[in-house]
Design a protein that fits this description.
This protein has 245 residues and is of the alpha/beta class. The protein has helices at residues 13-24, 36-46, 58-64, 83-86, 95-120, 137-140, 147-166, 194-202, 212-223, and strands at residues 4-8, 28-33, 49-52, 72-77, 124-133, 172-178, 234-237. The protein has one domain (4-237): NAD(P)-binding Rossmann-like Domain (Rossmann fold, 3-Layer(aba) Sandwich), CATH 3.40.50. The protein has a seven-stranded parallel sheet with strand order 3-2-1-4-5-6-7, with helices on both faces. Bound molecules: NADP nicotinamide-adenine-dinucleotide phosphate. Belongs to the short-chain dehydrogenases/reductases (SDR) family.
Length: 245
């Protein structure tokens, strides 16, 4: 029987590349996300299954459970992104707006992973894998406002604690922290402005952006039997833009 994988946010960008790679490795893959049409188009192209739900909404997760695999060998918590880019910056003194922004950021990048993983923990197989997509921002900060980096830092910390909760069942729990990755919707349809893009690339030792497939390759390794003794780690994949420690 093939191993099963669930990739949240698998309709686009990094998640889509992860789903493609795991399917090519012979896993039975389910991708999830909020936009049904985007998901279904990707699922058809990759030959995987789509289940649409909002990973930060408890009722939506519970409603989706019957459609998700009964045994989960690999769970990839990839859904997320910088809410800060999708909303106007709250005006100075707008505490309610600031609260909403931070809550949305934590929901998108932390609670999505915590809730989906908790819902699926009873289905994780012995020797299973939980892999969450963090960010370089979780280690280095995310610039003005700081909410995205703070949410990813919390995801990294939770990863370490969950590894101890699930370690007795032979399950490994790790995070991958990408640097700047192109060909995703993270910076919107057109990517970052040219100056910002050049600055991001300029931070890397290899002078180039990362590719979604390189994160997928790292997921594939962590999902393999060879990676059975790697757990509670944050693996940095960033061309040298941050020296992981
Ligand atoms: N691109 C980068 O440079 C970079 C760098 C470091 C880390 N990351 C992280 O990598 C992960 C993937 O992002 P990406 O770069 O591939 O950008 P992306 O193309 O925007 O992918 C994010 C995916 O997550 C889904 N998603 C977001 N919120 C969701 C929710 N509440 N419930 C279900 N699905 C949700 C989106 O689909 P729907 O909108 O349809 O739900 C989308 O398919 C994110 O966690 C991001 O923070 C990206």
């Amino acid at each position: 029987m093939p191993r099963t994988a669930i990739v949240t946010g698998g309709g686009t960008g990094i998640g889509r590349a992860i789903a493609r790679r795991l399917a090519a490795d012979g896993l039975d893959v389910v991708i999830t996300g909020r936009r049904k049409q985007v998901l279904e188009e990707t699922a058809e192209e990759l030959g995987v299954r789509a289940v649409a739900f909002d990973a930060s909404d408890v009722a939506a997760i519970e409603a989706a459970l019957p459609a998700l695999p009964g045994r989960v060998d690999v769970l990839v918590n990839n859904a997320g992104g910088n809410i800060f880019r999708q909303r106007p910056t709250p005006a100075e003194g707008d505490l309610a707006g600031l609260r909403d922004l931070w809550a949305a950021q934590l929901e998108a990048n932390l609670l999505s992973a915590v809730l989906v993983t908790s819902a699926l923990t009873p289905r994780l197989s012995h020797g299973g894998r939980v892999i969450s997509i963090g960010s370089i921002a979780g280690a280095r900060g995310s610039g003005p406002g700081g909410s995205y980096g703070a949410a990813k830092a919390a995801l990294h910390s939770w990863t370490g604690d969950l590894a101890f909760e699930l370690g007795g069942q032979g399950i490994t729990v790790n995070a991958i922290a990408p640097g700047y990755i192109e060909d995703t919707e993270f910076f919107g349809d057109d990517g970052p402005p040219a100056e910002r893009r050049a600055a991001l690339i300029g931070q890397a030792a290899n002078g180039r952006p990362g590719r979604p497939e390189e994160i997928a390759d790292t997921v594939a390794f962590l999902a393999s039997t060879e990676a059975g003794n790697i757990t509670a780690q944050v693996i940095h994949v960033n061309g040298g833009a941050f020296r992981g420690r």
